[in-house]
Specification:
Layout: H1 3-18, H2 26-41, E1 44-52, E2 58-65, H3 72-89, E3 96-101, H4 112-117, E4 122-131, E5 134-144, E6 148-152, E7 163-167, E8 171-176, H5 180-194, H6 200-203, E9 215-220
Length: 222
């Protein structure tokens, strides 16, 4: 394989790690399609979009910088950037509140790289179809391959397999479980990122969590 081919293969592999495997449907998907390229243009990546009935109607956009950090100022920047775009595209036909937030410590895992980054920590996974007789799994992330994540149960139940390989294509939802170990590691990682001890280009292929839970709300007017 030539050097050029190797570089192309590495780039494709990195994109595979960074492409979201858990995406939205309906209105949420329309919003995601509008804002994702805008976020990328200013150095952020989309984690999740969710429209809920909170406070009348709230559009929650969960995002983070490519290095995994997210500050209050970042939330304000994203909100200011996306508001006029959403006003023009107008994907929601009612008044709503725009809420921009970081993923938080017990974050959703939406990219393969998220599972790689948080290997060893406890995750809850819902699948889109029955797997090994059930659709809900909880346990430590033991291993991540190109096609699946292996979960070792931390709360073994009678009749359930203690170790299950869950194909990425079957994952409907996944989220880290808040534990003392996760809090410690997330805070340490966030500090290392901010102090430059973890190169940004490495994190862009790995996916990070952020201890900040800052939120910025803005009301959208007709």
């Amino acid at each position: 394989m030539t050097d050029g081919a190797e570089t192309e293969h590495e780039t494709a592999s990195a994109k595979g790690l960074e492409q979201r495997i858990i995406t939205e449907t309906g209105v949420d998907a329309r919003v995601a399609g509008i804002i994702e390229p805008v976020l990328e243009s200013i150095g952020f990546r989309l984690v999740r979009v969710r429209l809920s009935g909170l406070n009348g109607l709230t559009l929650q956009i969960m995002t983070e910088r490519n290095d995994g950090t997210m500050t209050v100022e970042d939330c304000e920047l994203v909100s200011r950037t996306l508001s006029p775009v959403l006003d023009v595209e107008d994907p929601i036909d009612r008044h709503y509140h725009l809420e921009v937030s970081s993923p938080g410590i017990d974050r959703p895992l939406v990219r393969k790289s998220d599972f790689v980054t948080w290997t060893g920590h406890v995750v809850k996974i819902d699948t889109s179809a029955v797997l090994e007789g059930r659709k809900k799994f909880r346990g430590r992330i033991a291993e991540v391959s190109a096609d699946a994540v292996t979960v070792e149960s931390d709360q073994a139940s009678y009749g359930d397999k203690p170790v299950v390989e869950v194909p990425f294509e079957m994952i409907a939802d996944a989220r880290l479980v808040l534990t003392d170990d996760l809090i410690r590691d997330a805070l340490r990682r966030d500090k290392d990122l901010r102090e430059g001890r973890i190169p940004e280009e490495t994190d862009a292929a790995a996916g990070e969590a952020n201890a900040s839970a800052a939120e910025q709300e803005q009301t959208k007017q007709d």
